[in-house]
């Protein structure tokens, strides 16, 4: 049985441009989506809501990379159609589908997906950002992304002009305890990966896990902190 939990928080901003949704079918199939409307473009809340709606409405219960990618592309085109000359709304997207012993993902932007096996972090998405490029060039370390001056410069997002390249993939889940975390940058900027692992080991369920991580966030954010959103899924194979 898949256990889930999610939340979204406006933080210190005037509106919440994050959106999250989780859906479980028959106990062993699930889809989770987190989207973050890009500030400075206008309509970020509408863009993230539409991105999540399109993916969740189109998910049929299977874990298929081509289908999830197609839904992300559909959401991209839908947001493009919603744009006006004065409102060039855009949104990141991170989508995860689970089906028994398979995981499938699709994403664009810097909203992340983390995968833990038996309490240890084994994989995470790579941000489509100027900061991630700086890591690839050896200019900064992955941890320094959190403080990098260009961390808000995103080069892939739903609603950009023209076509969008969505990163997607799938993986068979080996036997063990699997935990997944999808979160916007307002969350992962303040919660370190070692803390994700430590709170995971102590938590009795995904709701408790999110609560423990949010305690770190609450103690570190400034008064004008960004919207922060996360979804957690637990599955034993």
Strand order in the sheet with the most strands: 1-10-9-6-7
Name the CATH architecture: 4-Layer Sandwich
The biggest beta sheet, please? 5 strands, antiparallel
Name the CATH superfamily classification: PPM-type phosphatase domain
Which CATH class? Answer: Alpha Beta
Kindly report how far apart the N and C termini lie: 9 Å
Structural class: alpha+beta
Assembly type: single chain
Question: How many structural domains does the protein architecture include?
Answer: 1
The pLDDT mean sits at 94
* Series of H and E elements: EEEHHEEEEHEEHHHE
Total number of β-strand segments?
10
Helix content: 25-40%
CA-based gyration radius: 17 Å
General description of the model:
- The chain is α+β, with helices and mostly antiparallel strands and 237 residues long.
- The protein has a single domain (3-236), classed as PPM-type phosphatase domain (Phosphatase 2c, domain 1, 4-Layer Sandwich), CATH 3.60.40.10.
- It is built from six helices and ten strands, in the order βββααββββαββαααβ.
- A five-stranded antiparallel β-sheet has the order 1-10-9-6-7. Strands 2-3-4-5-8 form a five-stranded antiparallel β-sheet, with helices on one face.
- Helix 1 (44-58) packs antiparallel against helix 2 (65-82) and helix 5 (193-202) packs across helix 6.
- The mean pLDDT is 94.
